[in-house]
Amino acid sequence: MTRFIVRRLLLLIPILIGLTLLIFVFIHLLPGDPATTILGERATPENYARVRAALGLDLPLHEQYLRYMGGLLRGDLGRSFITNRDVVADFAQRFPATIELALAAMLFAVTVGIPLGMITAKRRATWVDQLGTVGSLIGISIPIFFLGLMLKYLFAIQFPVLPSEGRIDLAMQTFPRTTNLLVIDALIALDFRGLLDVARHLVLPAIALGTIPLAIIMRITRASVIDVINEDYVRTARAKGLPERMIDGRHVLRNALLPVVTVIGLQIGLLLGGAILTETIFAWPGVGRWIYDAVTTRDYAVIQSGVLLLALIFVVVNLVVDVSYALLNPRIRHS
Amino acid sequence: MTSRLWLSLLAVFALVVGACGTQVPASPPAGTPGAQTPGAGETPGTGQTPGTEQTPGTGATPDTGATPDTGATPGTGATPGAGEPQTGGTLVFGGSRLAASLDPALTSDGESFRILQQVYEPLVDLAEGSVSEIVGVLAESWEGEPAGTTWTFNLREGVTFHDGTPLNAEAVVANFERWNTFPEEMQPNAYYIGAVFGGFGENSIIESVEATDDMTVTVTLRRPKADFLQGIALTPFSIVSPAVLEEMNAADPVAGTFSTEPSQGGTGPFRWDSYTPDESAQLVRNEDYWGDPSEGPFLDRLIIQPIPNPSARLQALQAPGGVAGIDLVAPTEYEIVENDPNLELVERLSYNTLYLGINPTATEDGPLSDVRVRQAVAHALNREALIEPFYGGRGSVADIFMPPTSGWYEQVSAGVPTYEYNVDRARELLADAGYGPDNPPQVQFWYPTEVTRPYMPDPQGLAEATITMLEEAGFEVTTGSAIWGTEYIPAATTAQYDMYWLGWTGDYDDPWNWYGYHFDLRNGEPNQQFNCDPEGLREAFETANTSYEFDERAAAFNEVARIIHENACFVTMVHGDTALAFEPHVEGYVPAPTGSESFKGVWLSQDQ
Amino acid sequence: MTAAAATAPAEERSIGLWRDAFHRLRRHPGAITGGAMVLMMVLAAVFAPQLATHDPVRGDLANSYIPPLTGDHLFGTNVQGQDVFSRIVYGARLTLGIAVMSVTIGVLVGVFFGALAGYFRGWVDGLIMRMVDIMLSVPGLLLAIAVVAWLGRGVVQIAIAIALINIPIFARILRGSLLALREADYVIAARAVGVRGPALLLRHMLPNAMGPLIVQATLALGTAVIDAAALGFLGLGPPDPRTPEWGVMLADTYRFLSRAPYLAFFPGIAIVITVLGFNLLGDALRESLDPRLRR
Question: A144-152 and C246-254 are packed helices; what angle lies between their axes, rounded to 10 degrees?
């Protein structure tokens, strides 16, 4: 097991180096440069040269890359070319917002998706199953931005019952932001009005972002449960006359969840990509929108570090999924 | 007038484009003796600070025309009997962005000013709601001449910075020295400083700044600067506690935190509580504010929340709780605000113009170098039709560049050719120029993205409609778009686009600020943004620039306007409206045509 | 899989498989529904000029915000006075065009690299698969945004950006199939009779690895439609802002959501129908081609 993990960790190194190189080269292919961005209409040749020099953009490409990698190894990802803020600090400040949204979306997807998958599998080929299958297909086919717009229109404009902008009613937030995961912060402060407000702000974006994972999880759960139900040991258990509920819990679900865990892990990338759209629609101050803005303003420092950090998280999550899969599944562990 | 002075003036005006039409009132061009008049009208909620000494030279000339004032828009809670201001409460205000930098000296846009001007204060400022009247802030009085080189400021007694250190002459001297010695890599961002002072170090017009006594500062200039006082009234020239500057390494572009973290270095009615990029700027009341407590500040806490999309801003305002005021309401949504009993619309006086820029040299030997083709463009555009769908019926067609709210409008617009919507006439002009259906004039049209401006609430929508109109008249149009700050403005102003949107918000009421800024010579050459140099224009400008009396000056600029519009150097489109919206319990907000307002006098009529 | 099939020539074998799959597909309810949905959009795309009642690009400001089912405006008009129905119909043309173009590029390039990796193994495989890992570690939409920012806005650029998301996916799938096929009886048999190199790859292995690719390509068409609309929604659509692209149309409504919500409905539903069609079809294909279900 240890060898398996170590091997996977070592594999990370070339991926990350390749990624930095790829991002670096790619960014320098983008037209325009931050010097023009910073200077705007007041760009004179002298100003331009001075800003380029200040940003280190006049160095040869390989030197810029080495400088960047050097900083990376020291944990210094530089400062935004536009705001002059520390990139790591800004990422750290925004990432909890994205994580909170992604976790809420995943929570929604899992708590609704797995039971629905179970139910449709156990009632295979009934109208419940048909309905569930059609529903999940529609769920997969709805673009986040359309679902988000509809939710926003219905529940924030037509029937204004839920907030649709930002993470919290700023006038109400009185608790300190220790973790910047506002649910946790409100809990720490035992501020239940605040907690309710945070939860209300999470509802619409989490549904918008969580619907596709929900549909996928439901489908996988259904397929997996159907497979497991037909396995010998379940039939044996049933033949032994074990109560249905016990069979479901002990035998079916535990074994059927293996592929579901993998799929949940794979959804992380989808969630981070979808976050760009969700954060745009619901004015959510997270990482996705931050990087999108950086691309449009050519804020190289933010793009390269932001994408790298996101990719790093994605890769690590995948690793964790692989390892937990190996832990859950003895067949992989022993091979 | 020396060309250097002109240059520095040009730089000041260039800023304003940089500020995306933030409308920071600059001063009139030197040579226009006191083109600005005091008396911005009755600004509700503001009294002139008693004991303010008027600068000799400002407002010395008789009325040069009515300055746009805020009299038309009474602000929130203007109704009599709104009651005495109450202290307390939290106001969440929705702007479109947060600050670009937290160091006032390094900012140049209205969204930054909105936040920083609550915390930091300059020596002098424009009176609330006015675009011309200068009042003392940290300086109680001052002496100086627009044509002179010595300015003396007598500081206000008993002012302390938020960190508890006192405001004194030394602190002011330290700030002037800081502005003059910005490290090179920070100079591009200290844009206002460089523009108003003409540069840094040896290039700066500041020769010396001395603490004549504990509360008196004498500034000596290397050469006269007529708009010196107006220049240092801008938010970037705010006085910051020297102790804070030192503690936060403000001079260090790498390790300094003054530009990224909130500081306690201001003197303003509010002080920093916290700043979270993309989420909120939170300010709390300065209990030790130097001003008369009956004039504010009243709010316990002021929170600025960034919401870029105008419709989303309105939705946030309408949602229960939370945001209680927003800026730049989409004009098409004014009606929603007016029909909502829980909302109040506060309009700013319209003092801006959208124009369709034309550059005959962007494409070599392109069709637009023919004046008939440019006139055909003007006739092809149904400007009236744009008002309802895009400006919610609130704007007005711009016959000339200056808006009717200007005191100069009547004289300057008299007899200037206007272009009515007439597709047949456009086709005729194109035919005269040798174009027809088989041989259509090919032009590119550009519009900006990621932006709404007071004169341009929906650049893309306006572009779509305009392109269709041009096609109708027989043009073959290719479209391009670019991000406003990053690519669009530099390209549009350096002759890279055939046709494009830009606009202008006036900084003060003088025709030079409109026509001169755009079409007067720069370094002896026509402004490359338009490359428009028709016969007689240079002479007309020469006359106008040396005319000081109102009638004479108005007549001279009337001639300038006539030549420019006759040659269709650009097509003026629409004067837009801008407005804020508030929940009814927000009182005391005074709108300014400049778009930059203090929250000092704002209060909440019941605790929500 | 029968022993007879395994020894039969590859082409014949795969024809049998395809015919079989097609028969199953025709009776599959999902395939019929999905096929009908896709067919509807394809017909709309092909006959857009005949179906459209108005110019999809040029509007008339005098006719802005006409509600649906008024006069000859089936779906109403937008702020520009453009007819929404005509724009939806022409939008099908654009959207399907981008989807087909991007998936074609994705399949061709992905198959090329997947075949290289699966055939040569060794360091070629290692290198290609690491590249695939790297590309898959960046969220797809972010990759597409960056590519459009780099190449500029335009239909072809959008198609390339979306193709780039697909390339690693197709490469990985094909490589997986090829690795499995190396051990297949008929490949071993072909190798035993001396078939080597490209001939083995092209004539014996590739045709039999097509099943999963076709399924993935069908599903990818659906994702491509969503991704193209997402780019349009984020303001990275084709340069002419009047272009009737569904994502652009949705983004336009976002600015006026409280004023005319119906404007969001039509392009949104069009996207859902198209994507749902491809997803139904892809699922049905997967089930038809799945050997496990052929028992």
Answer: 30
DSSP character at residue B237: G
**Amino acid present at A180:** N
Q: Which of B307, B452, B468 is the best mutation test for C, with the most CBs of C within 10 A? A: B468
State which residue of chain A sits closest to B17, comparing Cα positions: A41
CA distance B495 to B482: 15
Is B278 close to A290, i.e. CB distance below 8 A?
A: yes
Q: Which positions in chain B touch C78 (Cβ < 8 Å)?
A: none
Strands B90-95 and B301-306: parallel
Binned at pLDDT 50, 70 and 90, residue C229 comes out as very high
In this structure, which amino acid lies at residue B560? V
Q: What is the pLDDT of residues C68-116, one digit of tens each?
A: 988 889 999 988 899 999 999 999 999 999 999 999 999 999 999 999 9
List Cβ neighbours of B39 (8 Å cut-off, separation of 6 or more).
B59, B67, B69, B133
Q: Are C84 and C91 in contact (CB under 8 A)?
A: no
- Which CA distances in Å does A203 have to A102, A186, A199, B26, B47? 12, 16, 6, 48, 48
Substitution target from B340, B343, B462, B464 for chain C, most C beta carbons within 10 A? B464
Type of residue found at C96: L
Interfacial B residues in 189-228 facing A (CB < 8 Å): 189, 191
Q: Which two tokens stand for residue B229?
A: 């006082």
Partnered with residue B570 across adjacent β-strands are B357
Task: Give the closest-approach CA distance of B275 to chain C in angstroms.
Answer: 27
The whole-model pTM stands at 0.82
Cα–Cα distance measured from residue C35 to residue C27, given in angstroms and rounded to the nearest whole number = 12
Cβ neighbors of B163 (< 8 A, separation 6 or more) are B241, B243, B244, B264, B265
Nearest to A38, CA basis, from B488, B196, B98, B189: B189
Q: Which B-chain residues 454-483 have CB contacts (< 8 A) with chain A? A: 483
C144: Cβ–Cβ under 8 A, 6 or more apart, which residues?
C158, C161, C162, C164, C165, C227, C230, C231
The one-character DSSP state at A332 is H
Query: Which parts of chain A are beta strand (E)?
Result: none
Q: Does B449 contact chain C (CB < 8 Å)?
A: yes
Question: What is residue A12's DSSP assignment?
Answer: H
Best mutation site among B487, B604, B607 for testing chain A: the one with the most A CBs within 10 Å? B487
Residues B143-181, buried b or exposed e (16+ Cβ, 10 A)?
ebebebbebbbbbbeebebbeeeebbbebbbbbbebbbe
CB–CB of B233/B195 below 8 Å? no
Chain B residues with CB-CB distance to A170 below 8 A: 92, 280, 282, 303, 305, 322
- B86 contact A CB<8A: no
Contact criterion met (CB < 8 Å) for B319 and A165: yes
**Alpha helical stretches, state H, B282-383:** 310-318, 334-339, 371-380
Smallest CA–CA separation between A283 and chain B, in Å? 7
d(CA B530, CA B512): 16
B435-469: pLDDT as tens digits:
999 999 999 999 987 677 788 888 889 999 999 99
CB atoms within 10 A of CB C39: 11
Q: How many Cβ atoms sit within 10 Å of the Cβ of residue A174?
A: 11
Quote the Cα angle for C139-C143-C146, to 5°: 140
pLDDT in tens, B69-122: 433 445 565 444 457 889 989 999 998 888 878 999 988 777 888 999 999 999
Q: Assess whether the previous peptide bond of B297 is cis (omega < 30° from 0).
A: yes
